[in-house]
Amino acid sequence: MKDGILIINKPQKWTSHDCVAVCRKASGVKKVGHGGTLDPMAEGLLPIFFGRAAKIMEYLEPDYKTYICTAKLGLITDTLDIWGSVLEERAISGITEDDVRNALGEFTGYIEQIPPKYSAVRINGRRLYEYARKGEVVEARPRRVHIKNLDIRKIDMATGSVSFEVTCSKGTYIRSICDDLGDALGCGAAMQSLCRTESGVFSLNSAVSPDEIKEMEAAQIEKLLLPVDTPLVRFGRAEMKSDRAVFFCNGNSIRWSQISVTETPDTGIAGNKDGRGADFGKMYRVYEAGSGKFLGIGYRDEVKHVLKAHKVLADI
Question: CATH classification of 65-199, choosing from 3.30.2350.10, 3.30.70.3460, 3.30.420.40, 3.40.50.720?
């Protein structure tokens, strides 16, 4: 089975690992991973990476994600969503739609968030939810996230429901937005529902359900796979002749004069780095000229004037 990416529509009560397990069993592929974990009570878009496609997941961290969320006003829980233990209920009388709109208007641009105590953030080697389940109190540092867009879809003050669509950076907690909205209004709020609809170039419109995957043969799943390079559109595009392609696939650097650049990197991702310190704003998708075969990811060394092989994803 070829390497590639499958877009799953994760149902509520399923974990991200449940979806991976179904894909692994149905396809027969052992190396299967997921990108962008969704909590069990959330639903929506979950990219699944087959084979060597899993190697590109680190490059997708700067991608923005879009969610549709409904917040329940007047409710405070320990997990910041309606599935947690209720700590307090408050009246919402006196709060108007304009109050809600004005409060949500403050949650755009760069904001500071304190990770929920029931989250997977690690402190001193342990996840926050591990401390919370044992009743231990630990202080989490605020994290800076970017809210690119936040659009209100519906406000129903009769039921205290507020629905909105938000596009945000990696690491944003939508239930924290709900909780902060409740604090701003003075009535409290908890997340009632959450659906991820987009992640980078991926859209929920092309997704299939895990139950559908269960009924498919490996060949049918393979037809649904997106090419490995699909989500790397923010990187530049470089081509090289066949002899240089072999050299590149052996992990070697290629002189810049031997590279044909057809697309330059998106400067909007400059400053985002991988674990080795390589700047995403200097990375290129690398192809063999003529055949168009995707070879892997290259990194431009502007001092040595070469394209370094950062991650090879093809056999030549």
Answer: 3.30.2350.10
